[in-house]
Write a structure and sequence with these properties.
Tachylectin-2, Chain A; 2 domains; eight-stranded antiparallel β-sheet; five-stranded antiparallel β-sheet; 3 helices; globular
Length: about 400
């Protein structure tokens, strides 16, 4: 056995010059005068294994009471969760549209003492009256707490707006309202490109000339106080985009919660991402870049709010998740992260809220064992439509 091991090492070392020569155009020849071994591109990128990576985690899910499935009612896109006194608060899109769960929608809120049993309260922000820029829908909201006041940012769409979306804001002295809308949107698309109304579909546009990456829609807003300023992260789509999964993120920065928000000249600042997840992490900002784009399902980090770098990939990311991040609005010197929140589950024509738990908080022990994640290596299509694959539904439930 000892001889076999020695032979194996000798053969491996003897092959190094061969590999170097075969890749001569892309890789420098190994310097035989030094004993430093070559390093592959993958290991040059490698920082830490998942088991030791603070920004790696897995997700588990459970139903919630009060915001779960209800026939004919859609609840989706929960905000970040805050705690005021003994209660947690969350805001979300609520619609009864029979086809599209995010349109003809208003923003509602709910409260809970434990994050599992929720009491739906009332409308927080209503759609505007006919003719206003938000008369079709107000949706995909997020919360900001600053200077003793509460601010909801959200996207808005007009009935005859041809899918042009803007970002609006409402403010209140209490998380229970009443909410006062600002007179104008706080962020609008980059109005370039050329389009015309769709010949068959109302309120749809046809691109004549492509525009900037955010010329059609700015949406999914989230504001985070960081580095002494207010950072409004948002998703963009451009006139002429051919695929919804080509969305990217931008950021606009302000000195005050209500703006004015100035778009960064570095936009877009991600090449991927559908919903906006940002939180203070250590000295910078962390982000979950979810299902859209070439860097989908990753956790990324930036020490300046602009330049993000991939730190980990994730499995089974919560759709449109909104987490309880205790220090999100404190501009902390050492951001702590989070361990739970709400997400939505469903389709375009129905959606409801669920709770997720995770380990994206400093000091938490990672749950990495296979027994805790039996869904690993499953195929979602099988889970959603087991009959199609001739699998008894009972076999998918423990």
């Amino acid at each position: 056995m000892k001889n076999k091991k020695m032979v194996s090492v000798v053969v491996s070392l003897s092959l190094l010059p061969l590999f170097a020569c075969n890749a001569e155009s892309k890789m420098k020849l190994i310097d035989k005068s030094t004993s430093t071994p070559p390093v592959s591109a993958a290991m040059q990128r490698h920082e830490v294994d998942d088991s030791k990576n603070d920004l790696y985690a897995r997700f588990s899910y459970q139903p919630v009471k009060g915001l779960g499935y209800e026939q004919g009612v859609h609840r989706r896109d929960p905000s970040s969760i805050i705690k005021v006194g003994d209660y947690y608060y969350v805001w979300y899109t609520r619609s009864e549209d029979p086809k599209l769960s995010w349109l003809n929608a208003d923003i509602w809120y709910a409260t809970s003492k434990d994050g599992i049993t929720w009491q739906e309260q009332d409308i927080a922000v209503k759609r505007g009256v006919d003719g206003e820029y938000d008369d079709l829908s107000v949706f995909t909201t997020n919360i900001l707490v600053a200077n003793g006041k509460y601010y909801l940012t959200y996207q808005a769409e007009k009935k005859d707006g041809y899918e042009i979306n803007v970002v609006a804001m409402a403010k209140a002295d209490s998380p229970e309202g009443p909410w006062q809308k600002l007179a104008k949107p706080i962020l609008t698309p980059t109005y370039d490109g050329e389009w015309k109304p769709h010949p068959k579909w109302d309120n749809k546009l046809v691109a004549v000339k492509s525009g900037s990456w955010d010329s059609r829609m700015v949406h999914d807003p989230a504001v985070i106080p960081r580095f002494g300023k207010y950072w409004l992260y948002y998703k963009g789509h451009g006139i002429g985009d051919t695929m919804w999964a080509d969305s990217k993120w931008g950021v606009a920065v302000a000195d005050h919660p209500e703006g004015p928000y100035i778009k960064s000249p570095m936009n877009p600042i991600t090449n991927s991402g559908h919903e906006i997840w940002v939180w203070p992490w250590k000295e910078g900002i962390a982000a979950i870049v979810d299902w859209a784009g070439p860097e989908k399902s990753t956790v990324q980090y930036s020490d300046d709010g602009i330049n993000f770098y991939v730190k980990s990939t994730l499995e089974d990311v919560p759709p449109a998740g909104g987490a309880y991040i205790a220090d999100k609005f404190d501009d902390p010197k050492d951001g702590q992260g989070f361990s739970w929140g709400l997400a939505h589950y469903g389709r375009s024509d129905w959606a409801f809220l669920v709770r997720f738990d995770t380990q994206l908080k400093q000091g938490m022990k990672k749950k990495l064992g296979w027994k805790q994640f039996p869904h690993y290596s499953t195929i979602r299509d099988v889970m959603v439509a087991p009959d199609k694959f001739n699998i008894p539904r009972d076999s998918l439930v423990k």
